[in-house]
Amino acid sequence: MINVALFGPPGAGKGTQSDALIKEFNLHYISTGDLLRKELASGGKLGMEAKLIISSGGLVPDEIIVQIIEKTITEHPEANGFLFDGFPRTYVQCYILEGLLSKMNTSLHCLLSLEVDEEESVARLLKRGQTSGRLDDNETVIRNRMREYYEKTLPVLKFYQEKGVYHPIKGDNSIENVREEIRALVIEELRKQPVSIVLFGYPGSGRGSQGRALAKHFDLEYVATGSMLDEEIEHQTPLGTLIKERYENGVLISDEIVVPLIEKKLEESKDVRGYIFKGIPRTLVQSYILDGLLRKRGMSITQIVEIELSTLELIKRLDARSKTKGKMPYDSTTAKIVQRLQEHELKTVPVVEKYAQQHGVTKVDGFGTFEEVFDRLKAVLEKSVWGS
Ligand code: AMP
Fold first, then answer.
1. CATH number for the domain formed by residue range(s) 4-190
2. Percentage of residues in the chain having pLDDT higher than 90
3. Best substitution site from 54, 108, 151 to test ligand 1's pocket, by max atoms within 8 Å of Cβ?
4. What pTM does this model have?
């Protein structure tokens, strides 16, 4: 998740620059000015209260701003992040934003400040006033808005300068140049963000071998509950004996066993930029557990990918694997293979469906050679990991 604020005096070009940004980085756009104008047009109570203030160029009270912002933030949990335009507009609003975002376990990652001189802004707004139909785009109100900006809004910069997330941008360059500069800064920021990718697929879809290769390629930690359990078996630990028994009966391993193992793994790999999870979450309960484990580390799921393969092909692959030396205890007989596929359908498919509604799931065709599938997966993950 990445949260960006576009900052600058009225007329600096914040609205113009936001279109490309929200599309490219899948951000949810929050312009308090637009939200207020919508409230106003719909004749809502908040809009009526704000009307007089907006038409004189003053700032609307924080009580109103908090209500419209909170509603919008909580309604869009699927967004990759938020792009704020026209907010925070006062020093106090910086704390409001911090409070709202910390509730979601996140913060503002960059404040992009379009620096344009006053006369240039006024000239742009007067020009816009000829077509915008906005009641505040006339000279008297514009001057008032500018005064509000210099007195009340500029102190916002100090807040974010101290946090180290303030980035000045020369706003009187061409629209394209400003866009490129913004884009580069957002990509740079994205590359610093932790990533956690969840890889789904039926048993036999290749998620294990692909997950391992992807983790290596992107320099992420591969977290596979299956492999961690196998290690316990291999080392013949007491836990391993228990796990083996359950495998042989084709039953899922309980969360009491899985959670401490994952915690240990995450703890051991604190210095990596992120994780590829495979084999977790397997159940709806585990999807909450994973959220909890990530939140504890200030993280959330970045992208969810599902490798798709026909049932026929899955059975063919699992059957072939059962005849190799590297076969798993759980794919030694047809009955066990079928049981695993059924278990996936019953317990894990609902998890993928839940994620599809909440975050969106990227589907990747799992048919073809290892390299072909790997290239497809790599292409869909590149954006999350590298930002472009
Ligand atoms: P904008 O579209 O951002 O230029 O905003 C138009 C008007 O809406 C401003 O002049 C203010 O009256 C009001 N407004 C927008 N955002 C805020 C905010 N964060 N705090 C207070 N008033 C705001």
1. 3.40.50.300
2. 70
3. 54
4. 0.81
